[in-house]
Amino acid sequence: MSTPPISRQELRAQPALFIRRRIARHELQATLAECLRKIYGYCHRVGIPLSGRPLTRYVSTGPGLWIIEAGKPLETAVAGEGEIEPGFLAGGPVAMAVHMGPYDRLSETYAAIERWIEANGFRTGGAPWESYITDPADDPDPSHWRTDVYWPLAA
Predict the structure, then answer these.
(1) What's the rounded Cα separation, in Å, for the pair 120 and 55?
(2) Residue 120 phi/psi, 5° resolution?
(3) More exposed terminus of the chain, fewer Cβ within 10 Å: N or C?
(4) What is the pLDDT of residues 94-139, one digit of tens each?
(5) pLDDT digits (tens, 9 = 90+) for 5-64
(6) Sheet holding 65-73, edge to edge
(7) Which residue spans within 30-124 are E strands per DSSP?
């Protein structure tokens, strides 16, 4: 895989709904499927319009357990219910890259972003997240999958 182009962008803060979980790396796919199904179901049940693509924010990624937040951006802030919590994707400067390809190669894009941040004199300013642009159910070829990766920069 070649290094994706990386750019500095300014984002507006965006409300979202999240489910936070503490998981082992191998539990990621099943956990995301479960959490996103619950969030979509909740939004459908209470009539919350959805905006944007599903995402995963990596709060902590140690060598053992990870803390992740599976979520869905919204147009306006709303209340959550139970383990579905309201929150925000922070606004401000981010390093952004488009990852093309299978999810199991996303770590290469994250490493490229980290190198770019350091080489350009920036510092990280929060937990990175990825937004899933291509739905594998619509296009099962992993070489076509697009995932936008964002890493907040310190102001």
Answers:
(1) 26
(2) -100, 10
(3) C
(4) 999 999 999 999 999 999 999 999 999 999 999 999 999 999 999 9
(5) 999 999 999 999 999 999 999 999 999 999 999 999 999 999 998 778 999 999 999 899
(6) 6-11, 92-100, 146-152, 129-132, 55-61, 65-73, 14-24, 85-89
(7) 55-61, 65-73, 85-89, 92-100
